[in-house]
């Protein structure tokens, strides 16, 4: 393995693939593969472990990891292939094709893994401290890189530096994932908003934050001034208000999209939080004729 060299991100390939059910055969990469699941679901098999990447979530495949990827159904999975550390031969490096496991002969081009250099371990399915900002930066990186002009290449490498910094910050000790820091849990509201239609539990969210449910609830209340369950209910109702005002969806459809178990539960919770029934809110929010 070559020396790590300075951190100088270099985007090698980036795209917004829209695919029907697909599969990539096992391979080992020379560089890093960062992916975002925009639509559908993706399964990553990495070194004998399996990770399910859902919509709104991120995946990182590090150099040399034996892996295969599959999308069981239609997906949109923006990706970035990049070097993180400078290598004088980076222009000769390449994206390893599907099915190629043996990369002997190219060891001098293989990037070192982040944990080996920085001591920071980033899991295959990772949660940045601010998912919405990370997503926007990643998508901007891809779009600008695809312009293929000098300024676009330069800016895409600069943006990639921000992506690497955010990943390291999110998982370093004493970083954004430390409950003692004020920015801890900044990512959780974006995560809630992206998954409102799903049965989010305090235990699930606590697991993502690396805390026990009781500790998570205390830290959440200190950070946002409300218990996580109540905060989530308010987000669901706010989303329902937006759908009632701006769409013609039925109460059953809105109930499902906002994560309520049934229409009765939706109506009861909506009135308790907003003071109005969903129907009354919809009528009051319609423009007068």
Description:
The protein is of the alpha+beta class and 289 residues long. The protein has two domains: 7-171, Regulatory protein AraC (Jelly Rolls), CATH 2.60.120.280; 179-289, Homeodomain-like (Arc Repressor Mutant, subunit A, Orthogonal Bundle). Helices cover 40% and strands 18% of the residues. It has helices at residues 114-118, 131-145, 150-171, 188-194, 202-209, 213-224, 228-246, 251-257, 263-274, 278-285, and strands at 7-15, 18-19, 22-27, 32-36, 42-46, 49-53, 58-61, 67-71, 75-76, 79-85, 125-126. Strands 1-10-4-7-11 form a five-stranded antiparallel beta sheet. A hairpin with a 2-residue loop joins strand 5 (42-46) and strand 6. The longest helix has 22 residues, at 150-171. The protein starts with 6 loop residues before the first strand and ends with a helix. The mean pLDDT is 89. One of its GO terms (molecular function) is sequence-specific DNA binding. Residues 186-284 form the HTH araC/xylS-type domain. Pfam families: AraC_binding (PF02311), HTH_18 (PF12833).
């Amino acid at each position: 393995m070559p020396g790590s060299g300075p951190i100088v991100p270099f985007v090698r390939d980036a795209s917004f693939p829209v695919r029907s059910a697909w599969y990539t055969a096992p391979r080992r990469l020379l560089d890093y593969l960062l992916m975002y699941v925009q639509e559908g679901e993706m399964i990553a098999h990495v070194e004998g472990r399996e990770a399910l990447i859902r919509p709104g979530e991120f995946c990182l495949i590090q150099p040399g990891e034996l892996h295969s990827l599959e999308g069981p159904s239609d997906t949109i999975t923006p990706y970035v292939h990049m070097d993180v550390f400078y290598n004088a031969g980076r222009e000769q490096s390449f994206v390893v094709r599907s099915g190629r496991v043996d990369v002997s002969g190219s060891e001098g081009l293989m990037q070192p893994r982040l944990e080996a250099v920085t001591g920071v371990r980033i899991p295959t399915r990772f949660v940045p401290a601010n998912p919405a900002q990370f997503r926007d930066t990643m998508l901007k990186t891809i779009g600008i890189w695809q312009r293929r002009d000098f300024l676009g290449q330069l800016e895409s490498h600069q943006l990639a530096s921000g992506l690497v910094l955010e990943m390291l910050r999110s998982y370093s000790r004493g970083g954004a994932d430390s409950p003692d820091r004020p920015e801890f849990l900044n990512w959780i509201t974006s995560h809630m908003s992206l998954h409102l239609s799903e049965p989010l539990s305090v235990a699930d969210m606590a697991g993502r934050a690396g805390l026990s449910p009781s500790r998570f609830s205390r830290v959440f209340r200190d950070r946002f001034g409300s218990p996580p369950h109540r905060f989530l209910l308010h987000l669901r109702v706010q989303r329902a208000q937006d759908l009632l005002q701006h769409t013609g969806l039925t109460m059953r459809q809105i109930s499902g999209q906002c994560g309520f178990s049934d229409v009765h539960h939706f109506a009861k919770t909506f009135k308790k939080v907003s003071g109005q029934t969903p129907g009354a809110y919809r009528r009051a929010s319609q423009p007068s004729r």
